[in-house]
Design brief:
The chain has 31 helices and 2 strands. By secondary structure, the chain is an all-alpha fold. It folds into 4 domains: about 140 residues, Alpha Horseshoe (Serine Threonine Protein Phosphatase 5, Tetratricopeptide repeat), CATH 1.25.40; about 140 residues, no CATH class; about 120 residues, no CATH class; about 160 residues, no CATH class. Strands 1-2 form a two-stranded antiparallel sheet. Strand 1 and strand 2 form a beta hairpin. The chain is extended.
């Protein structure tokens, strides 16, 4: 009998999965208890679970009429209610609405594994329409602190997915969640972590900055605005059927000029700023249990370069200055900024009234701020810089920048290993220095071969001029031609430039490669070598093109053939520009540009 029932349940599972309600209804009429049976033992799914999983709205509506309301709170083997499956698997809002209308208590039931309520599940998997609907119908009481991590975990999901308008609405309605914990991480710490990019304005081109400034952001939405009205959406959809082509064209143009991206950035920055304002508002009176949360949030902000959060929060309450000035048990904000190479946060130190106090501090290993700068930067920061030599240069720039703000004598203090900051720097960067030396020598060797070939070519060309020489006078036959003068000048410039390039690269190969040489000496030589090599290639091709045109002019060739010659001659130059010119620009900018430590300094306590 059990095997027969199992076989029948398999048929019921198949009927529901194939959206065959007549067959499923016939079976249920004969076996009413099947509504409460697990159709598959491994998953523990009831018929309602299966219908929701496969997204069959009509069967869900029929089954909801047949089962009592408490049936919608039943969990499968993975700890999901039917609403939990609808929120995380399918994203079909009408199915969720049908389930909620029958039993709204399912909105507050977390799943068995992650302990996430349906609305949080929807945002975590990227089902924004479903998430917004569930948020509009989930009672505020569910999110409150007395229910444990349900509210903070929902906010973290919104921060991860960038749904900051929903997070802002909830924080405005329930401000105590700012200091509520989500499995060890408080909301204020999550704000410092996940809103780092949103709080810092992105660098845009000048015209995009102008558009960014004039874009108007709508006022903050309330919970009622997140509700999905099915009938209204259908009306809008039907009305817009005749405007599909116009809408498509407008949308394409909107995306083509980057307007959508600019609007999204402005919206995210606006919402993040409002959230930060709300955080600062709640920092007026601090209890002892909130201080560790704020301290961890400040350290997180310093580590990620969230300078706006660090500045605003630390100045919102004069008591918080001590958290920035004095070392914490798990670190210090400026120590984190230096260790993780966050230049904007470090620039705050230059405008900090208590910078002498910070500069004189040391951690549990007796490392002072300069010892911290002597550590090797994280791989995530070094990987942004092309070439091992430029990475070594940036590391030395950091060391010198920190050295410029610390107190006298700091550079001579020893840490637990008995090393001064300079010795500690050399120890930690020994491998990177060797890689930088190898990179510089490989680059110099490759470029010097090209330069030597150009020297050979243009030197020989100077004695075998186009058209030859007059046997009587010894002067070139085409001496009076304008293009011949172009040839002579280009050939001479190419010879001098390539010779300079070869000699400069030879100087790189014979350098001592000390750590301080990577700051100016070696990059300057590389700039000169690459620049003169680029000039020699360009003038060599000009000389070649001038020679070809002179020869064709005197052979009565048609003028249109000159264009292909010039185009073909520009191919090597274009390749060099594409492959090497960005590196040259990067080296010049890194060595002689404004740099990352010369931005406007904010004055603060």
């Amino acid at each position: 009998m059990t095997e027969a029932i199992g076989f029948d349940l398999a048929n019921l599972y198949k009927a529901i999965s194939e959206n065959n309600w007549p067959a499923a209804k016939e079976f249920i009429d004969h076996h009413p208890r099947a509504l409460n049976q697990e159709l598959e033992a491994s998953t523990g799914e009831t018929p309602l679970h299966v219908a929701v999983k496969f997204g069959h709205l009509s069967i869900v509506e029929e089954l909801v009429r047949l089962v009592p309301p408490e049936h919608l709170q039943k969990l499968d083997a993975h700890g999901y209610t039917p609403l939990g499956i609808a929120a995380s698997h399918r994203g079909i809002v009408p199915i969720a609405k049908c389930l909620v209308d029958r039993n709204s208590n399912a909105l507050s039931i977390p799943n068995g594994q992650l302990k996430l309520i349906p609305v949080t599940l929807a945002f975590r998997v990227g089902l924004y329409e479903m998430g917004r609907y569930l948020y509009s119908v989930t009672p505020l009481q569910v999110f409150k602190s007395e229910n444990g991590p349900l509210g903070p975990s929902f906010l973290r999901g919104c921060f991860v997915t960038g749904d900051l308008d929903v997070a802002l609405d909830l924080l405005q309605r329930c401000e105590e969640l700012i200091f509520a914990a989500d499995f060890g991480y408080s909301t204020i710490e999550n704000i410092a972590f996940y809103l780092s990019d949103s709080l810092n304005k992105s660098q845009l081109r000048f015209w995009k900055q102008w558009v960014y400034y004039y874009i108007k952001i709508p006022s903050t939405m309330t919970a009622n605005h997140f509700c999905v009205d099915m009938q209204q959406e259908d009306k809008i959809s039907n009305k817009a059927e005749g405007l599909n082509v116009l809408w498509l064209i407008t949308s394409l143009l909107y995306n083509l000029f980057g307007m959508k991206e600019i609007h999204k950035r402005k919206l995210q920055h606006s919402r993040a700023t409002e959230i930060l304002n709300l955080v600062c508002k709640n920092l007026t009176f601090l209890s002892e249990d909130k201080r560790p949360m704020i301290a961890k949030a400040l350290l997180t902000a310093a580590k990620l370069g969230n300078v706006e959060f660090l500045f605003r929060v630390s100045t919102a309450n004069p008591e918080l200055i001590s958290m920035v000035t004095f070392s914490q048990r798990k670190g210090h904000a400026f120590f984190n900024a230096v260790e993780y190479r966050q230049a904007e946060v470090f620039n705050l130190l230059r405008g900090f009234h208590f910078r002498n106090v910070v500069a004189a501090m040391f951690n549990e290993n007796h490392d002072n701020l300069l010892h911290t700068a002597a550590k090797l930067a994280p791989a995530s920061q070094l990987n942004r810089i092309p070439g091992a030599a430029l990475k070594m240069q940036r590391e030395w720039q950091w060391f010198k920048a920190v050295e410029s703000v610390v107190n006298l004598g700091i550079e001579l203090r020893l840490n637990k290993e008995g090393l001064t900051p300079l010795d500690y720097f050399k120890k930690n960067h020994k491998e990177l220095r060797n890689e930088g030396e190898k990179w510089m020598k490989d680059t110099a060797s490759s470029c010097s071969v090209v330069g030597a070939l150009i020297v050979t070519i243009v030197f020989a060309t100077a004695f075998t001029v186009p058209g030859g020489n007059d046997q009587a006078s010894g002067y070139p036959i085409f001496l009076k031609e304008k293009l011949f003068k172009v040839f002579l000048i280009s050939d001479a410039v190419s010879l001098f430039a390539s010779t300079t390039s070869v000699l400069t690269f030879l100087g790189i190969l014979t350098s001592r490669y000390a750590e301080e040489d990577f700051l100016y000496s070696l990059p300057t030589k590389l700039i000169i070598g690459l620049s003169t090599l680029f000039l020699s290639i360009a003038t060599m091709l000009i000389a070649f093109s001038a020679t070809i045109i002179i020869m064709w002019q005197h052979n009565s060739s048609p003028s249109w053939v000159f264009l292909p010659v010039i185009m073909v001659a520009s191919v090597p130059l274009s390749l060099f520009v594409l492959l090497q010119f960005p590196l040259l620009v990067e080296i010049i900018s890194s060595t002689y540009g404004p740099g990352i430590f010369h931005k406007k300094v904010k004055k603060w306590p």
